[in-house]
Design goal:
seven-stranded antiparallel sheet; 7 strands; about 25% helix; globular
């Protein structure tokens, strides 16, 4: 049985900087191994994190559907692994929700991961790699570097 996972990281940057890191191609590219976010960000619209293959071809690493989009406060989406990562990608999912809370001169970023599909292999990875994941530390590093 999977449970809701919650991780919080303190970032020494304004919510606007953290938001830019989460929702711009530059920010996602810096924090997700070069994968750049593509979406209209309307509720119900598609979101894709796109990288390049060895031959420069466009590869959808992760895709899903926007569930929440409240600028500088909440960003959520149902996430599926890209077809190159899992042949059962359409039925493998979880929901990722980013909650930004202003804190003095910085921001607390809470990552909530829930609604795991049965047998989702990413669940065990998330338990073992968060909160010390490259994803959260990458968001922190990129947002704070933009403040310098």
């Amino acid at each position: 049985m999977t449970e809701t996972l919650r991780y919080t990281i303190a970032i020494s940057a304004a919510p606007e900087r953290v938001w830019e890191t989460l929702t711009t191609p530059e920010g996602s590219g810096a924090t997700l191994f070069g994968s750049r976010i593509e979406s209209s960000f309307e509720i119900g619209s598609r979101v894709e994190f796109v990288g390049q293959g060895a031959d420069g071809e466009r590869i959808v690493q992760v895709y899903g559907e926007i569930t929440e989009f409240e600028p500088c406060r909440r960003f959520g989406y149902v996430q599926h692994p890209g077809p190159v990562h899992n042949p059962r990608h359409a039925e493998t999912s979880c929901r990722m929700t980013h909650v930004l809370t202003p804190r003095g001169d910085g921001t607390d970023l809470e990552l909530v991961i829930d609604r795991w599909s049965e047998g989702n292999p990413a669940y065990e990875h998330a338990i073992s790699s968060y909160p010390e994941s490259g994803y959260l530390s990458g968001i922190k590093a990129h947002a704070e570097a933009r403040m310098a």
